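Predicting holo structure, adenosine-5'-diphosphate bound.
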Amino acid sequence: MKKIFSPHNWEIKNEEQMRQLGYALSQSLEAGDVLGLVGELGAGKTRLVQGVLQGLGSEIPAVSPTFALVQEHPDASLPTAHFDFYRLRSTDDALSMGWQDYLHSGMVLLVEWADRFDGSLMPPGTVWVVITGSGEEVRRVKIKMEGC
Ligand SMILES: Nc1ncnc2c1ncn2[C@@H]1O[C@H](COP(=O)(O)OP(=O)(O)O)[C@@H](O)[C@H]1O
Ligand SMILES: [Mg+2]
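Done. Tokens:
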């Protein structure tokens, strides 16, 4: 992760701003970066991911991969995989879908519900993107990196 994103809080008033934040964030990503997205259902995690993937030039639609658990975006300028841990029943489920291999793949990993299992699946160096608010509320987005 390039040091463009110092710890910061954003106030996001609509889904377009959330997409723009994702787009801006994408410009500081590097191969192998892991983003852990946290926020309740409807917080805007997928909206933010859509902005990131747009910024990386992927034309594969970024839908919430709730049923597939993972959606790969090999056409992005940095190969990316988008996960949703919401439906994982156990950490074993993650291991059986090859989570360890993804961690070593050098792909950018975008993970919705990254706080499942107390965040124990997420590697050191994860960039945490915490969204609060849902429904019609203004969202607050906090980005936290190790050592900051
Ligand atoms: N400020 C906002 N930021 C992001 N999404 C918003 C905002 N206000 C309303 N929304 C709506 O909230 C929903 C967020 O959906 P989604 O991104 O799929 O959430 P999640 O992936 O966190 O469950 C969208 O329907 C979007 O239009
Ligand atoms: Mg989602």
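The pocket of adenosine-5'-diphosphate (ligand 1) is lined by residues 12-15, 18, 39, 41-47, 64, 112, 139 (CB under 6 Å).
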